[in-house]
Hints:
- The chain is mainly α.
- It contains 16 helices and no strands.
- It has helices at residues 3-33, 38-49, 52-63, 68-92, 97-126, 131-159, 165-183, 199-211, 214-244, 250-268, 270-274, 279-296, 303-331, 337-349, 351-362, 368-391.
- Helix 1 packs antiparallel against helix 7 (165-183), helix 4 (68-92) packs antiparallel against helix 5 (97-126) and helix 5 runs antiparallel to helix 6 (131-159).
- The longest helix is centred in the N-terminal third of the chain and has 31 residues, at 3-33.
Amino acid sequence: MTQLSARVFIFSIFLSFFATQFLLFAIPLAVLGNGGTVSSLGALLSIEWLPVLFAFPLSGFLLARMNGVYIARIAHVIRAGLCLLCYQLLIVFPDFSFFHLSMLAGSCAFLMGFVRMSSDSVISQAFKGDEENMAKHHSGLQKAELASLLLGASLAGTISIWISKETLLLVAGGIFILALFVTLLVPASRSVKKNPKPFWQGIRFGVGYIYHNKTLKGIVAINFSLNLMIGVIIGLNPIVVTQVFNQTDAYLGYLSFAGGIASLIALTCIPLFLKRVSMQMLGGIGASLCIIAGLNMVMAFNYYSYLLLFVLYLMGLALYNIYNRTERAKVIPTEDFGTVMGVFYVLNLVSLPLSGGVIYLAAEKLMPLNIILFVGMLTLVLSLSVYMAYLRPRKATPVSTASL
């Protein structure tokens, strides 16, 4: 694959993320607009993210047998069809709107897992042995996701002034079709790996590898806690923005827009940070910013103070993820990267459906911002415990000369 083809492919992934941002904006607001409650948002979050847990190991299995570009094309086509189907069902059977919307959310999140894994695989295989270009194009993938966060929700919020939330589903479907056409410009090899591991054998290998590696265990546990908190925050954002702070739907899009800008700024400053601090220190700073922001959200007195804390959280998460990606790449063998990462992603993202369960169970007992505070305290305790057990730098033990 040439560098031009790689850029075209990354643009198609941007379009995929961009369409997903339209869905992430429209679906929760459509649920609330059809009589949904805080508990409904919690249930929606669980339904949306639970299927993703199966997507990553299954996509790893398929990537050992077919090219990632083909997988991305299939995912784009199916999601476009699902958006159109859901729109039609909402018109014909409006009384079952929560069912239609939650099934769309879960199906598209499931297929997004395939797109994430295939994009990582395509870039890694295209520039294998060329570390500089591989790093540059992986950075391009991350920037594509952040750019979609920056533009997608804010544009969806602006468009929603003129069209209904349900019609935004058609817009998302059209963008998925555009992503498909872009991927058709990318050449795709039909070659596959020789003697790929059977599905369950690959999962066992990945679980065992992570279990016996202290660094990976530590990273997985901290990822779990930070993802649990951001899952709760994102799940509650629609109710916090529209009901706690009494803002219009468009302000939910502005929240994502500001978060996208902050994340891009944080990524741009990474080279400057690394001249002054170690990679592990950078991860610690990022995780600390996340926890501080989450714990202080309960004290947000208006929309703008909440937005500032949300931005601080996403900046911290962007910094932490640089540490996360770098450290895991150091300890996972290249030949087993896909197999181990399929399990790694599952362990990371199991916290997201759990965050929906937390919202659902706590909705009747706690106010939305108090739920975030509760999860923030759990994250603080878990992160500190994991750091002390697995990730804290340890001084080398001097070798005794008594018996020499």
